[in-house]
Amino acid sequence: MDNISNNVENTIEQKYNKWIIILSVAIPLVVALLFGVNLRKLGYDVQPLSFLPPIYAAINGITAVVLVVAVWAIKNGKRKLHENLMKFAIVLSVLFLGMYVAYHMTSDSTKFGGEGAIKYLYYFILITHICLSVIIIPFVLVTYVKALAQRFDKHRKIAKITFPLWLYVAVTGVIVYLMISPYYNH
User: What's the pLDDT tens digit per position in 33-43?
Assistant: First the structure.
């Protein structure tokens, strides 16, 4: 019976492994490519979506709260709540990504105007946020697939890495927004 169970779990993981690899490479590449595309500069008559940054920053903040509540839920034996919250966190991250790309495809990039130590702090936070936002993609996907395959021992092990990384990305997304928001052209 254990062999059948292990085969089903391995089949689920094998089924998703290629998608994890594809998405882990494709998402950052597509975002990087689209980040460099400004529809207005290409001659398209689109309005800048300048209202989006506070919305997607709020989504990052909500994601951070959802992640913390999801960890609380699982530590308190509320598995279904944990599962639903984690699915919600993934949906929020996808929404953030869509809005982020839409904003940058329709608006000019904003330069950070701070000087001195705050400038170095801003760029440190921004660079670590961007790097970890790329790194977190396979971690989230692998962690999720381990749960789908009911490999909870492995799920817990990788979640101990995924959670703090994802939380850092969500929180620093809000911090980056708060630091650059005074320099947005309104």
Answer: 887 888 888 88
**Contacts of 2 by beta carbon, 8 Å cutoff, 6+ apart:** none
- Torsion of Cα atoms, 163 then 168 then 170 then 171, to 10°: 130
Residue type, 34: L
